[in-house]
Amino acid sequence: MKYIAVLSIFFIGVFSVHAYVFQPAVINGREYISLNDICEIFNVSFHNQFFPNRIVLTTEAEETIVLLISSQRMLIGKKIYNLEYPPEIKDGVIFIPVGFISRVFGEDAFKSIKEAKKSRIETIVIDAGHGGWDPGAIGPNGLMEKEVNLDIAKKVRQLLNLHLPVKVLMTREEDTFVSLAQRAKFANDNGANLFVSIHCNAAFSTQMHGVETYFVSEAESPEARAVEVLENSVINLEIKELGVTRDEYLKSVLQPILEDMIYHEFVRESSAAACCIQKSLVEKLKLYDRGVKTALFYVLRGVGAPSILVEVAFLSNPEEESNLASESFRNRAAEAIFEGIKEFLHASRKIE
Fold this sequence. Notes:
single chain; alpha/beta; Copper Amine Oxidase, Chain A, domain 1; Aminopeptidase; six-stranded mixed sheet; 39% helix
């Protein structure tokens, strides 16, 4: 059953919008803006209710606006207007034709959005941990970490592309092996402004549970050190494949970044990003909050940008393995990571 959205819109004499980079979503060659973005830009609120095929919006003056999902017709008060094309629902998100803005809020409103102060386009690299012949952790029932990581990563990419004016790249899009050095190089070569590595946790004890997020620095606890060792273990395979010593590997791949003074600024921003994402994950997934931690993950140390590593839940815990196998849980995990990234970008003014 499709649903109805009741939306309070505030019309004011002099229109102003929040600093916003206008980047319409393109669906079937047509430009749309999401209902959620309309709410954010115009500082309005809405409530979802069920009603077939209709979107009903209510202004502060109690004027009603009715849109039909399958029709270009729009009713404002008692007058009928035509939109360029019908509203769309894609991946559960309602999208409204961009012409709706000028029709309802006025042409000046539309111009204000398009001419709003623009920030540089951020490049976000999403890293699905493990892959190929490196399965990562394997749960008691056989669920492989590499599969979960990739699925959640793709969902995060989709949300970022739909809702934020950013460029999103992935270190891998299929079940392929990508070395830690290659992942870092990919991020650096593409000018990443933020690097988010997605993983599932594991422990010897099946009772260990919860979500935690890391940024690069010395490990502060035995537990963090254990996770650091686990995630870095693939390095030994890479060193063998490259035919170099461990010292040569570290010097060629990692040391230049560590010696760069800007690294310390990256640590500060990485900490802020980790806090935003961890908070969002705990709120969305309702899992035990294991906190924001530090560790010297090689994949993070090699990236010349703020970078964090998310351990969504414990594959070694049967209950959490069951959660990680669930499509709805993965969707919520992706939404939480997306919301955390969004909060960080806005808070750090990387996106206005």
